[in-house]
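Data deposition worksheet. Section B asks for the primary sequence of the deposited chain exactly as it was used as input, without tags or linkers unless they were present during the calculation. Section C holds the resulting structure in token form. Section D is free text for depositor observations; keep each observation to a single sentence. Incomplete worksheets are returned to the depositor.
Section A, Depositor: J.P.
Section B:
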Amino acid sequence: MALELIYILSLLITGVVVGLAGGLLGVGGCFIMIPVQYWVLISTGTDPATAILVAFGTNLAVVLPTAISGAYGHNKKGAVVWNAAVPLGLAGFFGALVGGYIATLIPGDVLKTLFGVVILLAAIQMLTARPPTVEEEPVDDLVTCLLWGIPLGILSGILGIGGGALLIPVMVLALHFRMHTAVGTSTALMIFTALGGTISYIINGWGAAGLPPFSIGYVNLLQWALLASTSIVMAQVGVRVAHRLPGHQLRYAFIVVMVYMGLKMAGVFALLGLPL
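Section C:
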């Protein structure tokens, strides 16, 4: 997969946006990373069915170091609830292992549409539901975290995402996290889900036909290096911005990102002929 300059620049710039999104909103940045990776892969001759799986697997591999960087910054500001992050993350790790395998059994177009629909539903719920009151304390007991973490991890593996877009609505609406704490804790537990999903995509893609050069299973090391080189640094910038914004502004920014992500991956913009 010989990359032209335009593809290299596209991936580097995407890494900047992904890092900012990870630190600012507690999401893996898949709303831009997966479409850009998919475009680069099919533009350089990879079959679309293989390209979507490589985009998903590589996306998770990029989320891993970006989440570590973001979690470090949020933890320094006291915004990570480790009592919830660790059990949610461990449950999500094993769920993501299963989800990564399930993804290889589903057609690429179905995966993209499913991803978009799930994110749109989560955005609508996030917009319309009552946020937690000041008196409500976050729910961080072990059983509750495990019960939420396993299915969310499975979805994370299937959809090739770190899981922040799914986890933050759950933490805010069901577990009563305040927005800043939800973002920080989501960033920490994405370390676990991204690791589980990455391992699964490597194993299930090992020896697959039609993989682009420099791939280990469904993880492309060349794309990973270009994306991660900028996203890790920019995650720290995103953390600083996040803690300067009021909670309600952060909440609405997150919802806007989710709506765009859902519409993009569900193919709505393409159906309407919009270059978004």
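Section D:
The chain has one domain: 27-271.
Strands lie at 215-216, 219-220.
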